[in-house]
Write a structure and sequence with these properties.
The chain has helices at 3-22, 28-44, 83-95, 114-120, 122-133, 147-150, 154-162, 201-218, 229-244, 266-280, 283-296, and strands at residues 50-54, 62-65, 99-103, 137-140, 168-169, 171-177, 182-188, 249-253, 260-261, 264-265, 314-316, 327-333, 336-345, 348-358. It is of the alpha/beta class.
Amino acid sequence: MSLRTFLQRILKKPVATLANRFSSRPNRQKVHDALTRLYMQIRKKPGKKGMVIDLNASPQKIIIFSDLHKGNKKRSDDFAPAEQNYIAALHYYNTKGYTLIVLGDSEELWKFNLFTVKKHNHASFELEKLFQQRKALIKVFGNHDVFWNNDPFAPLQLISIYGEPVHMYEGVLLKYNTGEKAIDIFLTHGHQGDGQSDGNKFSAWFVAKIWAPLQAYLDLNINTPAFNDIRKTEHNQFMYEWSSEQKDLILITGHTHQPVFESMTHLERLYKQLLIARQKGDEHAINHLQDEIAFRRQEYDHVSEDYLHLKPSYFNSGCCCFSDGDITGIEIEAGEIRLIKWKMEDTAAQRTILEHAALKDMG
């Protein structure tokens, strides 16, 4: 047994426990205050913090992806298994003229330096560049790629990747009049108010100086969507609470890696569909849903007690780094919002609509 294998066996659990122990839980009031502050800043003074798009004045099709965590194509790279699906998705959406919004944590700059990420992700950067050339690329920074917001050389690095200047935002505000009411669609990465990612100095130091080098050396990869599942569910809950208190607004984030549609996780919506199938006595649907629930519970197992009574105000794009290679995202088009998944079927990536609803019923 090699030294690396030996250390991996004995250190994986204690290092993960230590990282979890010293990382602060999200704070409800901090999350709410941070979202309110950013939303009002973009609404009152569009520009530096975020851009505003009037979907009635400038109709466009939008695809939202988040949490790619592009790395070095080795085992500790969360994006590597999903790269084929992401590339296929970008081909599809560029051909169909979509605007691409990358909602944070596109590049994994906690574990890898930017030069490594650039070297090993040329294909996806080139496809994103096609959107930029159409003025249809919007990048929002997250906690794992906050470099884009605070490093003085970030603008030059963006030019080296995309061939022209790319502005980095903290949020985006889409305005849409349904004909019955005007709603705001507020997009941000979602790490605001999270003690682990938004101001916890110990966590930032631990990740940068200890965990990242150790993870790279040991070739460990425990930063999966299921890791810290309770904390991520808690953060989703805080963001839902904030969005539900707003009038005629829906919130779309990433960060937690858990897809959410109309304030319910995909697992919760499967349980809701199972209830309906049982009421109808649809045995085929019941069996199919039970199998799907058993599979999805491997990813996250929390179900809110009141999931059947939530206001449809919060959405989460999920991530582009599921361990099985699947990616999820959110489409907005012609007054409709959709949760979609891209998955390899045989040798080709296939797009599936998991959920869809009319925007007029939101907020």
